Amino acid sequence: MYQLRLGTSLSLFREGFADKLKEAKALGFDAMDLDLCAFWPHRDKEIEAMKGLVDGLEMVKSSGLFFNGVHISFGNHWNFAHHDEAVRAEALANIREILPVIDAYHPNCYIIHGSFEPISDDIRPTQLAALHDSLVQMTTWTKTPIAVESLPRTCLFNTAEEGIAIIDAMPAGVGACVDVNHFLKEKSEDAVRALGGRILTTHISDHDYVDERHWLPGEGKIDWMALLAAFESVGYDGVFNYEVSASLPEIKENYDRLFAAYNNGGIF
Asked: Among 180, 129, 125, 126, which Cα is nearest to 152's?
């Protein structure tokens, strides 16, 4: 039988964070990701909200849930691939400030967006080189693994092939966060097989292969039986972390039904 630990992303900056932690634990969730992205378009609000970071980390610590990941914010204030060195320097300063604070609570990994968008073809090599330099620096600031998230459209790591090139050029400590609803140029199960042991964690939701949708599994066009088979075939045994807008009971019901169908040879 193949079973992965059930997790979900919870936003520290949304109302009811503490209640969501308690609800997830009561429903039988195993893990959670701490999402710091709620105010990414508004740096002033983000700075103010970050004053509650330690309080939020204390809540996670006492929740009884496995602390799987921390999703670092994104946008140009966190753009580790920007071709403008001043912009990239700001992003690196921002993450360097919070890494030691969060490291004290021992998350399993950090999840970062490798870039913002749009990225034109002519600037892509420059941004890939900038991302590489940023990741090298980050690995000297933390021993916690860094998971670069697969992203849609023109972002860096918008195919498994590009993700492999990014990760394989890095020292130890860098892997992939596979967001299965971000693969628009290939089937999600094919991307998982290609990435293989580079996968550190997941973001789970469904889409239509037109754009990211963050629907519950079964609401889109991903072949979930094929996708779970791909995860099993590459030996992935980490967290099955939902990143959807559904309620926690809806996520738990979906997870139970999905893995029951897979393990019983059924149709989801």
From this structure: 180
Provide the phi-psi class of 105: left if phi over 0, else alpha when psi is between -120 and 50, else beta. alpha
8 Å CB contact between 109 and 103: no
List alpha helices for 41-84, DSSP H: 43-49, 53-63
Amino acid type, 45:
K
CA 225 vs CA 22, 177, 247, 250, 258: distances in Å: 31, 20, 23, 19, 8
The answer to whether 233 and 196 are in contact (CB under 8 A) is: no
pTM confidence score: 0.97
pLDDT digits (tens, 9 = 90+) for 133-168: 999 999 999 999 999 999 999 999 999 999 999 999
- Let me know: does 14 contact 39? Beta carbons within 8 Å: no
